[in-house]
Amino acid sequence: MEIAVKINGEQHRHDVEPRTLLVHYIRDTVGLTGTNIGCDTSSCGACTIHLNGESVKSCTMFAVQADGEELLTIEGLAASVNATDGQMHPMQEAFRSCHALQCGYCTPGMVMASVSLLEENPNPNEQEVRQGLEGNLCRCTGYHNIVKAVLECAQGGAK
Questions:
Q1: Which one of 52, 76, 100 terminates a domain?
Q2: Are residues 35 and 108 in contact, defined by beta-carbon separation less than 8 angstroms?
Q3: What radius of gyration, in Å, describes the C-alpha atoms of the chain?
Q4: Residue 136 gets which letter from DSSP?
Q5: In CA terms, which of 58, 99, 107, 108 is 20 to 30 Å from 141?
Q6: Is the domain of 116 the same as that of 53?
Q7: β partners of residue 11
Q8: Which helix (H) or strand (E) holds 131?
Q9: Which residues pair with 12 in a beta bridge?
Q10: Would you state the torsion angle of the CA atoms of residues 79, 82, 83, 84, taken in this order, to the nearest 10 degrees?
Q11: Are residues 142 and 86 in the same domain?
């Protein structure tokens, strides 16, 4: 089937097998490898992207389901807030400044989920951050600094 999607502001049109998962389309067809594959079962959240502004695990849907939709991946996140000259999105900067990553595998999905969380709840407390990110797993157990980064970003400290 032919699909057309806008990814990070750029239009893409490809023929895809109907059973191709969105995460594989993003990585293998479009070549945006920042969206990680962690489990293929929607358990870990490493593949989290934004679909029409909503946080989704891209391993839970087929590429054909995204036909006509707008996607934002970790590669386009900084540009989505008009960051220039190597600047990062405020959430990416908060993750950096709070040392909210260890191996980094969960980081793209965790950042995307965190951005979505703050769009829904701009001033969360620690418990709300932990609940909001419970569908994203960090195998290195870096949750303390991840929560710290989200709270710092919410308070405007990472701008």
A1: 76
A2: yes
A3: 15
A4: S
A5: 58
A6: no
A7: 6
A8: helix 126-132
A9: 5
A10: 90
A11: yes
